[in-house]
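Memo to structure team: turn this sequence into structure tokens by end of day. - J.P.
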Amino acid sequence: MNRRFALTVGAAVAAGAAGAGVGWWRSRAGALDAARDAAAATAASGADASAAIWSLHFDTPAGAQLPLGPLRGQPLLVNFWATWCPPCVGEMPLLDRFYADQRAHGWQVVGLAVDNLEPVRGFLAKRPVGYPIGLAGVEGVGLSRSLGNSAGALPFTIVFDRRGQVAQRKLGTIQPEDLTRWVSALA
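Reply from structure team:
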């Protein structure tokens, strides 16, 4: 009888925790869902689906805000990544060097982690990068889909020109030749 009571209490606690987790996830998803829906509506109307991204802002691992709007008007490379994605992790040093080399020429780089806060904090403590990182969470997959990542896979990189329009997209690992080509195309 004591064991049955413990199992019942354990099941109730697990169900309560699951419900709280779903509630937290739904509340966090609101802003990105709205942006994704706006991007989808824009795409359906025939206009550029990237327009909605400029109204987004993301929490950073340090607890600050990373708004994308102020980055409009300069070339911007947005890289969707995750700590659990080996190709994503593998390309980060290249993106970091690119940012260091091209920042003086007006380029910006933003990494959007399709991941949770603690794994990202832990990862960046061991392997810091110079470019800003925003926390897109699992909702980042939907955002990347609205920007042309039909597979929803990682890594996914999108380049915006100075007008804020999509100039390039790449699903898979970035190569140095990609970066060279993109810089030349937006010069």
